[in-house]
Design goal:
globular; 8-stranded mixed beta sheet; binds P-hydroxybenzoic acid; alpha/beta
């Protein structure tokens, strides 16, 4: 059987938030793209991930016309609680940042909305493709062969020729490893803990998220809907989920999250209920530099991973593709390559700040078994300083709601 050759302007590998949002933003600029994804549509729309959207991400989704359900169903938040030493302390981010907030709206809902928007506009998303490989993306001149994505669909071989390839295929995708050795430098930090996350049929008992440092480790209270709570607790990176029956999870969560400060009448506890989903997420920080090689641009998790404590993953992906879409629009309208040439540098400045913030939140709020008692005392002092200093709280708040794009 022969190979069918197709053409598009931008070939996008991966139908996660980066790939789908890029395809959508390009469409608004009348730039054609094809998105390919090895998983099925149902898998992409059902995969449970984090769900905190920065103000800038929310604005981008609304302005680009995919924020209708987000505005209806997303839960807007003005601040977070920090719980330590048995007491909760509220940090009012909206007040500290001059009116900014974050919105809780699950990643798979963003994915669902983007897929619908693309398909409604007759956009091409190829689900369930196999054997994806990328070729000829190294050259930057018009006489070079066109960047090509080869793949198989229903047994048939295809070759997608394009002007540019966007590698939006996550940290284990094929795009980054296809770049020749020696071009990319990677930076990595692996943390000695993981998160055990659950979705529970329990109404959220706090309007705002609660981040807790307890002697037994970190815990986080979040939510999805007025009936569903999302909770996480720190566990070992090699933890077997089978060792965590529901009763053990609840016992540990209640121990770590409950505040017992009778003096302030704050005897807050999360409500319990049936656990409908559970999973373990390892925690690491990772950056690939540069995020571009020739006519291949990496975006989202294929270029960087953050530990979830700062709630930045999806937001970094959205920021990357916002810049990439701008650069491609400029190129197609005037031939100018300034924004495209600066893509990696522009993204990485913001990425490293998000790395710093995510690392800071992670190390402040988790117990490292190998650390000394000194370190734990230092963590508590850091939290105590934070809640007593408007300057420190403002620093947390402006990073949490999202730093400016440039
Ligand atoms: C979530 O709701 O899934 C969530 C919230 C805050 C985080 C991470 C995840 O820092």
């Amino acid at each position: 059987m022969g190979t069918t050759t197709v053409r598009t302007q931008v070939g996008i590998v991966g139908a996660g938030p980066a790939g789908l949002l890029l395809s959508h933003l390009l469409h608004l600029q009348r730039i054609e793209s094809v998105v390919m994804e090895t998983r099925s549509r149902a898998y992409c729309e059902g995969r449970v991930r984090a769900g905190v959207l920065e103000q800038g991400t929310v604005d981008l989704l609304i302005q680009s016309g995919v924020g209708e359900r987000l505005q209806r169903e997303g839960l807007k938040h003005d601040g977070i609680w920090l719980s330590f030493g048995g007491t909760r302390h509220f940090i009012n981010m909206t007040e500290l940042t001059g009116g900014k907030s974050i919105t809780v709206y699950a990643q798979h809902e963003v994915i669902t909305d983007l897929i619908k928007a693309r398909l409604d506009a007759a956009g091409q998303i190829l689900f369930g493709v196999q054997d994806v490989t990328i070729h000829d993306f190294g050259g930057d001149k018009s006489e070079n062969p066109a960047p090509t994505i080869r793949f198989r669909q229903d047994g048939e071989l295809f070759e997608l020729r394009c002007d540019f390839i966007a590698g939006c295929d996550g940290s284990h995708g094929v795009c980054r490893p296809s770049i020749p050795d020696g071009v990319i430098k990677t930076y990595e930090k692996v943390y000695p803990f993981a998160w055990l996350g659950i979705l529970a049929e329990a109404p959220p008992t706090s309007d705002e998220l609660v981040y807790a440092l307890h002697e037994r480790g970190f815990a986080l209270f979040s939510m999805r809907t007025p009936k569903i709570t999302r909770l996480y607790l720190q566990c070992c990176p090699d933890e077997n989920i089978a060792n965590w029956p529901d009763e053990r999870i609840w016992k540990e969560l209640l121990l770590r999250l409950s505040s017992r400060n009778e003096g302030t009448h704050d005897a807050w506890v999360p409500a319990t209920g049936a656990i409908i989903q559970k999973g373990i997420t390892p925690m690491r920080s990772f950056v690939a530099e540069p995020m571009q090689f020739g006519r291949l641009f990496l975006a989202g998790d294929s270029a960087h991973i953050v530990p979830p404590t700062g709630a930045k993953g999806l937001n970094l992906a959205a920021a990357d593709v916002q810049i990439l879409a701008k650069g491609l629009a400029e190129f197609y309208s005037s031939g100018a390559k300034n924004t495209l040439n600066d893509y990696s540098r522009t993204c990485l400045r913001r990425v490293w700040k998000a790395q710093r913030f995510s690392w800071w939140m992670t190390t402040m709020l988790h117990r490292d078994e190998d650390a000394s008692e000194f370190d734990h005392r230092r963590q508590l002092a850091e939290l105590d300083y934070l809640i007593g200093s408007r300057a420190a709280m403002t620093s947390l708040a402006e990073n949490y709601v999202g730093l400016p794009m440039d």
